[in-house]
Every structure is written in C-alpha cells, then in structure tokens.
Amino acid sequence: MSFRTIEWRDNAVIMIDQTRLPGEEVYNTYEDFKSVAEAIKGMIIRGAPAIGVAAAMGIALGAREIIADTHESFFRQLENVCEIMARTRPTAVNLFWGIERMKRVAEAHRGKSLDQIREALKKEAIRIEEEDLTICRNIGKWGATLIPQGATILTHCNAGGLATAGYGTALGVIRAAHEAGKDIKVFADETRPWLQGARLTAWELVKEGIPATLISDNMAGFFMNRGEITCCVVGADRIAANGDTANKIGTYSVAVLAKENNIPFYVAAPISTLDLSLADGSQIPIEERHRDEVTHIKGIAIAPAGISVRNPAFDVTPARYITAIITERGIVSGDYLFGLRKAAGI
Ligand SMILES: CSC[C@H]1O[C@H](OP(=O)(O)O)[C@H](O)[C@@H]1O
Predict the structure, then answer these.
(1) What is the CATH number of the domain that holds 204?
(2) C-alpha 313 to ligand 1 mean position (Å)
(3) What are residue 220's phi and psi, to 5 degrees?
(4) 226 annotated as ligand-binding
C-alpha cells in the first residue's frame, strides 16, 4: 500500500487526514492526546480498528504529557486520558478494546518507574498497530477462499487500509482475492452522508488498480436484482454474541437486499470487534452525528436550514442476514453463539 493510515514517529502520531481525501493526501502530526481525541471525533481518522490504534497511541502520548511526582497521581491522570479517549465515539468496540489493553499494560508495569511505564505504553501502542496489519492480511486470506473466480463484490463504506492499520478488513478480502488472480471487480457504495465509499474506498481501489465501479447507495438493489453482484463483503464496528453486527448506516439495507436476491453477505472483522458481553445487537450504542453531515457536502448546503435532520452513523444487521463472519482466525457461520466464542478462544 502506498499510504500510511497512522504511525508513531519521533514520539508523535502521524495520521493521514481522511477528511481531505480523495483530493489531497495530507498527513497531520499530533503531539498531544487531546488532539488525537479530536481527530477521532472529527473523523480525521475513522474505521473501527484504526480508531482502536489511534486511541492506543493517544494514550501513549498522554502518558508522556502527564507530570506526576507519585504513581498515584500518574495513574489518576492516566485514567482521565483514557476517559477522554473513551468519549470520542460510542459504537466501534475496538476503541474500548484498545483503551482497555493499554490500561492492562499500565497496570502490569505499576511497580516500574514512571518512565518505564511510559515506554511500555508506547511499545504497546506500536504493537497494536503492527498486529492489526497482520490481522487484516489473515482476514484477507480466509475471506478470499469464499470469493469465486471472476466475482463482482459489492462493498459498503470503507473497511479498507484507511479503516485499519493498513490492508483493510472487507477490502482486505478484496485485495487478497485480487492478489490471488481471481479477476474480481468491485461495486463500491458511495455511502452517504460521509461518503466513505466515494471518497475513501474508491481512492484506495483506484490507487491499486483494482477494478471498481462507484454507485450511489440506492443503486445496490438494482444491480443485485439484475444478477450483477456475486457477493457482498462489509466491515463491522461491533459484533454481538449472536452475530448481530453494527456497521455503517446503510449496511442493514444492503444485507436485506442481498438476502432477497440470494446473494451471500459477508462481514469481515477482527476478533477485537467482537463484543460478547452483548447477547444481541439491540444493546449496541448507535452514534448520532451532526446534522450538517447530511445537509452539507464540502460546506455547500444541499438542504434548507429549516429542515429537521436525523443522522445515525450506524445500523445493526441481524445475524440471520449474515452468511458468514470472516475473522483472522477463520470463518464463522451457522451457530454464531458457539462459533464466535470459539473464534475468540472462550
Ligand atoms: C474496518 S471496519 C470500518 C468500519 O468503520 C466505519 O465507520 P466510520 O467510518 O464511521 O468509522 C464503517 O462502519 C466501516 O465498516
């Protein structure tokens, strides 16, 4: 891949600014944890695994900012850093997974010096990023076994290298199938209102020469009904114990249309996206974002100011619409309650 989503460099965090794509490939440098939190909230960086990495690196930055004479003061301030990270976005469980993993490392080093704790947190954040890349490649390998030669794959939103530490989950499956010479084509939903498909997925696929067609969200059913789509592959932000999956708004509609047209619908996600504490998807918190994301494009109003607006950023696809869930440890289908726990090693 010819871009880097996020990187720890010289005790700062470097991120590609995803709000400026596809027109400009700009990298921002963050030297304090609060600006990393703002970058997550403002979707400079977005995508479940990517915001897990960003939160971890933000906490590592925060630990270096803390001025403390005692361990008690350090850990009290570190808790505050973690709480600020946790308030950035509510749906992607990877954010909280990353925060908890960093907390565990800090606790495990409580007996060490503050600088040793800071160093351990920095190394853990870098490790999380490096691991995510390997995880995505493994998701790709497993997922590619489901993709027939010459398939046309519909994807929604961006579950690509930009949504992870690189390579992607849904786009990881697509990349792996392409690299295996399966001669695949992609239909990418533009994904209103934030246009992750038009701005980010299309950018990734064009850069790599993977054949892709951009469609507006309301065209997905048309092409499915005409027999032009072989299968659908999407990412995820939180997967409940029974397989119900939260993903970008519009995913549920794609899944129902796929079921109606007898098209396999796959979710590609790392184990860190599982939330087995939730029995089903009804408890998954759904982020509601600012109305301007719906009424404006690039700052230009496309709706009158007086109109009321709703902007849920995610929806939940019931497990019955999901053909299989592709993880880095294998493909889960059928009895999700059993299969997901097994995949998680429980
Ligand atoms: C690799 S999962 C990415 C997942 O996150 C996206 O949401 P957002 O762009 O709001 O962070 C979308 O749901 C993707 O499927």
Answers:
(1) 3.40.50.10470
(2) 9
(3) -55, -45
(4) no
Q: How far is the CA of 7 from the centre of ligand 1 (A)?
A: 19
User: Does 289 sit in the ligand 1 pocket, CB within 6 Å?
Assistant: no
| C-beta of 235 in contact with ligand 1 (< 6 A) | yes
Model-level pTM?
Answer: 0.98
Burial class (CB in 10 A: 0-12, 13-18, 19+), 280: middle
Interval 56-62 mean pLDDT: 98
- 128 shares its domain with 159: no
Nearest CA to ligand 1 atom 13: 248
CA of 298 to the centre of ligand 1 (A): 20
Residue type, 279: A
Euclidean distance between CA atoms 101 and 90, whole angstroms: 17
The per-residue pLDDT for range 219-270, each reduced to its tens digit, is: 999 999 999 999 999 999 999 999 999 999 999 999 999 999 999 999 999 9
Chain position carrying tokens 């930009």:
162
| Domain assignment of residue 117, given as a range | 6-136
Catalytic residues: 237
